[in-house]
Amino acid sequence: MAHSLAAVPDVMQPPPDREFGAGVYNEKVGMWIFLGSEVMFFTALIGSYIILRVAHPDAWAAPGKMLNIPVTAVNTFLLICSSVTMVKAFAAIQDGNQRLLLRWLIATVLIGASFVGVQIYEYTHLIEKGFIPSEGLYGSTFYTMTGFHGFHVTMGVLCMIYVTWKAFRRKYTAQDHRGVEVIGLYWHFVDLVWIILFTIVYLI
Amino acid sequence: MSVPSPAPAPAPVRHAHPNYVGIFVGLALLTGLELTVAFLPWPKRTLILMLVGLAVWKALLVALYFMHLRFERPRLRLLAVAPLPFTVILVVTVLMEHFGK
Amino acid sequence: MATSIPRTGQGGGMAFGGDAHAHHDDRTFLRKYIFSTDHKIIGIQFLLMSLLFLLLGGVLAMLMRWQLGFPGQPLPAGGGMLPETMAARGVILPEFYTSLVTMHGTFMVFFAIMPLLVGVFGNYLIPLKIGAPDMAFPRLNMASFWLAVPAGFLMLSGFFVEGGHAAAGWTSYAPLSANSEYSGVDMGQKIWCVSLIVLGLSSILGAVNYITTIIQLRAPGMHWFRLPLSIWSLFVTACLVLLAMPVLSGAIIMLLFDQTIGTHFFLPPKGGQPLLWQHLFWFFGHPEVYILILPAMGMASDIIANGSRKPIFGYTSMVLAIIAIGFLGWGVWGHHMFMSGMNPTLGTTFMISTLLISVPSAIKVFNWLGTMWEGNITFHVPMLHAIAFVSMFVIGGLSGVFMAAAPVDIYIHDTYFIVAHLHYVLFGGSLFAIFAAVTYWYPKMFGKLMSERWGKVHFWLTFVFYNCVFFPMHQLGLQGHMRRIYDPNQYEYLRHLQPLNTFISISAFCLFTAQIIFAVNFISSWFRGAPAGNNPWLDNGLEWTLPSPPPHGNFATVPTVYRGPYEYSSPLVEEDYLPQDRQLPPSPGAPRAPARPQPPLMPAPHPSSPTH
Hints:
The complex is a heterotrimer.
Chain A: H1 26-55, H2 69-94, H3 98-128, H4 137-168, H5 178-203
Chain B: H1 20-38, H2 44-66, H3 74-81, H4 84-99
Helix pairs in contact in B: 1-2
Chain C: H1 18-22, H2 29-34, H3 39-69, E1 87-88, E2 91-92, H4 94-130, H5 138-157, H6 180-183, H7 187-216, H8 229-260, H9 274-291, H10 294-308, H11 315-328, H12 344-372, H13 381-404, H14 406-412, H15 416-446, H16 452-478, H17 498-528
Antiparallel strand pairs in C: 1-2
Helix pairs in contact in C: 3-4, 3-5, 3-17, 4-5, 4-7, 4-8, 4-15, 5-7, 7-8, 8-9, 8-10, 8-11, 10-12, 10-13, 10-15, 11-12, 12-13, 13-15, 13-16, 15-16, 16-17
C-alpha cells in the first residue's frame, strides 16, 4: 500500500481516510453539538422566565432589594477568572508546557469550586430571609435558573478534576490535547450562560 | 490498484495566542459598567436594552476569543450558532401571546 | 482493543479499525452482548426493548378498546386479576381509563416508536451505510442505551404506586398535571416526569453521536448528496432531537418543581401560566412528531427504490424536502393549541405555516409514486409495508390539512377525528415503515431471512384490520365523539355511535392478535430462518457488501464510494443494481480518471428479470 509510516495522522485534525466533515477532530464537533442542546435547555428555563416576568412584572423586587448584588458580582468576576485560567491552560498545552497546564487547570478547579461555594452561601442566606422557591414567580424562576446553572458548573468542576488528574499523569501533549480543549469549551459555555443570567436575573 | 484518498485536510491556520488577559480586562470593565448602569435613574426599558447589550457583548467576547470561534472555520461557526434561531422563535412567539392581546 | 473511533497513530495511516479487528475478537460475553459499544448490538438492544414496549402499548390500547366497545362490562379472562384500584370486579374504572389513555400515548411515543426509528435504525444503519467502523463515540452510545433502560423501568413502576400512574394525558397539561389535588395522582405523575428526563438525556446523547458520526466519518467518496435518504432523514431527525428534547426536559423540570417544591411556573394562583406549559410542550411536541415520521420516510425511500428496481425519483428534492420539513417543523406548534385560548393572531400565523408544511411532504409522496412508476416492481414484504406506508400517510396527511384550518379545528379538536389522524400517521405511517424496515434489515442483523409467506399474511391482516379500526374514527370525530372519554354513552347524542365503537374494538382485538404472526416470525426466524447471505434484496447500500451479520468493526478496509445508492437498472452494468462502492473499469476512449463520476441518465426499465 502507498501509505508511509512517516505520515502519522494528526489527531487534532479531522479523521484521516474520511470525507472532510467539519474540518476538526470528532470530539470537538461532538462538544459543539452537545452545547447546542444546552443552549436549548437554558432557552426553556430562561425563556420561561422572560415570558413570566413580562406578563407579571410586579412579582419581582427591584434589583438589589432581595438578591445580594455585591457578593454575586464578585462571584461573576470569579467565574470569568476561571475562564481565563482555563484558556491559559489550553494555551500552555498548545505550547507543550506541562507544568503550566497543570497549574492553570488546578486554578480553574479551585475557582470553579469557589463559585459553587459562594452560590450555596448565597442560597442559605436567601432561604433564611424567607426567599424560597415557593415564594412566587420570583423565587421559582430564580432558583431554577441559577440552580441548574450551578448544577452545570458542578458537573464541569468534576470533569475538570478528571482532566487535571489526566494532566498530572502527563496524558496530554502538544500533539494531542483534545480533552483540554473540549472541557474548555464546556467551561466557557457555562461562563457564557452565567454572563447572561447575572444580567437578567440580578441586574434587571 | 491504488484507492483514491480524499483531499487532505488543509493545515490549520497557526495564529499567535489571542491576548487573553486583554479580553479578561475587557470583561471586567464591562461587568463594572453593567453594575453602574443597573442603578442609573433612567427609564426601565432603556436600562434593560443597555444591560442586555452589554451582556451580549461580554458573551461574544467569551465565544469569539475563549472558545476560539474567531479563528475557526466557517463550518464550525455555523454549527455553533445553529440553535440560536430556534431560541428566538420560541421566546418571541410566546411573548406575542402577551403583547398581542 | 480499539473501542472508540478513530484511534489514530497506531500504525501510521493504515486503514483504522480494520486491522485491529481482522484478528480474533476476544471480548467477553458481557462486553460483547450486554455492555457492548458496538453500534449493531446497541441497535438490536434498542430493538428488543422497543418491541416489548410496543407490545405493552398495544395491551393498554386493548384495555381501552374493551371499555369503549363493551362499556361497563367486566374484562373477560383475567380481568378479575386487576387490582381494585384499576378495575372494580373486572370493570375498568374511569380513573384507570384516564391512566390507560395517558400511558398508551406515553409508552408508544417515547418508548416504542421513537426508539424503534431513532435508537434502532439510527444506531444500526448510520455507520454501516456511511462506511464507518462504528459511531464516533461508541462508549457514549452504550451510555445512551443504558440510560434508556432505567427510564423504562421507572416508567413501568408508575403502575404500582399509590394513586396509580400518570393520568393527565401524554401531553401532561398543567395545572392538571402539576397539582395532585386536581388529578388525584401524585407519585405516578412525578415518576412520569423523572422517567422522561432520564430518557431525554439518553436521546440527546444519542443525537450528538449520530450527528457527529454522519458529519465526520463518511467514507471517501460518500459526499453529502450520495447519502441514502435513510441517512439524510436520520441526520435531520437527530438535529430535531438535539434541539427539541432539551426544551421538553426544561419544561418537565419546571413541572416537577411545581409538583414537588412548590414553584409556580404553571399554577395560576401566584402568576403561573398553564399556556406556558402548552407552548413549551408543543414547541418540543411538533418537532417530535417529525422525529417520528422522517426516519420512516427515509427508510421507505430506500425500500421503495429497491422494490421498484429504479432510482429514487427526484433525489435532490427529497433531500431538500427532508430539510424543509425539519426546519419548518419549528414554526407550526401552535396548531395543537388552536382551542387553548391563545392569541388568535398567533393562531392565524400557525395556520398558515401548518398549511405550508404539507407541501414538502406532498413532494415526497409524488416522488415515491414517481419512483414506482414503470418500475420493475417486486412485491416483497418490505415493499408491501412501504407502499402501505405511503398510502396510509397520505390519508393521515390529508386529515391533517383539515385540522390545519383553525376554523375547522374548532369542531374537530380533541375529537376522534384527531385520534384518527394521529394513528394514520403514526401507525399507518411510522409503524408500517417500521415493519418494512425490520423485515428489510432483519437479514443483515441476524443473518437469517424472515418468512416471506408469513410476512405477507401478517401484512394483509394488519392492513385490513388497521383500517377497520382507525378509518371509522374519522366518522366518530365528525359526529362529536371526544377523545380520552371513558363513557361516551353519558351523552345522548353519542349513543347511536356505540355500534361503531364496538366494531372498532373487535377489529382492534383482531389487529392485536394478528401481530402474533409477526412476533412468531421474528423469533422463529432467528433460530430457523433461511441463511440470508450478504445481499438478499440486491441493494446498493454499503451494508449489503458485508457478511450478515457484519463483523465487529464492520469494514475490513475503508470502502470508497463512487456513486449514490439508487443506481438500480443502470445501463452501465448487466445486473439491475450497482453497489455504491463498486468500481467500474473505465470505458475505452473515455478520459483516464474522470474528476467526478457523471450523474447517471434516467434509464428505461430493464427488460431482464433480476438475477438471484
